[in-house]
């Protein structure tokens, strides 16, 4: 599981 | 996009619009913490700077613009148009006690040490505690109008639904963002006491008032 920023979320 | 995420976004939108309509229809912002609303405007402003740098989807762009527009409209109504009805004497939470530590934390714990990333992290941390002035105000006056409690409930539901969304994304998309998840848990926990009062009082048709 890779951690990545959730920029698609509001 | 999953159903929990969509429901969360719509719940958030409903909360923002309920608050705007309440103020507009009653021509009054009594019982509403202007400080919480300024903090939310700051949250959206620092988080949605990526509107200028990268495009994700029409849905994403439109929702961000609506959230931003509504947040500023709410602040305008409280501090300008219906300023006379603003209950500043009870809105005494010291917002700098939230903004300063949260700013420091965003500098220390982030995904990447760049201006946009730090501002995004700041907005995530700040959102988790931005409702505190409002909850403090209710605990101080000991009561809240029913419509205000609907607003708070919709706002809390948005966060709870996002938590389910993250569990979903972890299982089905192998996706997780620790900063968002920890801040989201903190934010949801802050609402638990309120959820209890909402279910045991407001949904039974009683006004939300706290024991003296």
From TrEMBL, chain B:
GO biological process: protein retention in ER lumen; protein transport; vesicle-mediated transport
Localization: Cytoplasmic vesicle, COPI-coated vesicle membrane; Endoplasmic reticulum membrane
GO CC annotations on file: cis-Golgi network; COPI-coated vesicle membrane; endoplasmic reticulum; endoplasmic reticulum membrane
Sequence intervals crossing the membrane: 62-80, 119-139, 151-172, 178-199
Pfam families: ER_lumen_recept (PF00810)
Keywords on record: Cytoplasmic vesicle, Endoplasmic reticulum, ER-Golgi transport, Membrane, Protein transport, Receptor, Transmembrane, Transmembrane helix, Transport
Membrane topology: Multi-pass membrane protein
InterPro entries referenced in this protein's UniProt entry, alphabetically: ER_ret_rcpt
Top-rank lineage group of the source organism: Eukaryota
GO molecular function: ER retention sequence binding
Main location: membrane
Family per record: Belongs to the ERD2 family.
Protein name (record): ER lumen protein-retaining receptor
Organism: Ciona intestinalis (Transparent sea squirt)
Gene name tied to this protein: erd2
């Amino acid at each position: 599981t890779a951690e990545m920023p959730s920029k698609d979320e509001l | 996009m999953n159903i929990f995420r969509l429901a969360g976004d719509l719940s958030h939108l409903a909360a923002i619009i309920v608050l705007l309509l309440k103020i507009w229809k009653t021509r009054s912002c009594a019982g509403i913490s202007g400080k919480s609303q300024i903090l939310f405007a700051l949250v959206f402003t620092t988080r949605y700077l990526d509107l200028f740098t990268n495009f994700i989807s029409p849905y994403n762009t439109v929702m961000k613009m609506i959230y931003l527009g509504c947040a500023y409209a709410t602040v305008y109504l409280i501090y300008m148009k219906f300023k006379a009805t603003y209950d500043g004497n009870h809105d005494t939470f010291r917002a700098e006690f939230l903004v300063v530590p949260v700013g420091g934390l965003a500098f220390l714990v982030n995904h990447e040490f760049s201006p946009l990333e730090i501002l995004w992290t700041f907005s995530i941390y700040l959102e988790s505690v931005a409702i505190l002035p409002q909850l403090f105000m209710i605990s101080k006056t000991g009561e809240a109008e029913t419509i205000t409690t609907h607003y708070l409930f919709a706002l809390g539901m948005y966060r709870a639904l996002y938590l389910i969304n993250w569990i979903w994304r972890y299982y089905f998309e192998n996706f997780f963002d620790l900063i968002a998840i920890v801040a989201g848990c903190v934010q949801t926990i802050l609402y638990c006491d309120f959820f209890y009062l909402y279910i045991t009082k407001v949904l039974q048709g009683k006004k939300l008032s706290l024991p003296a």
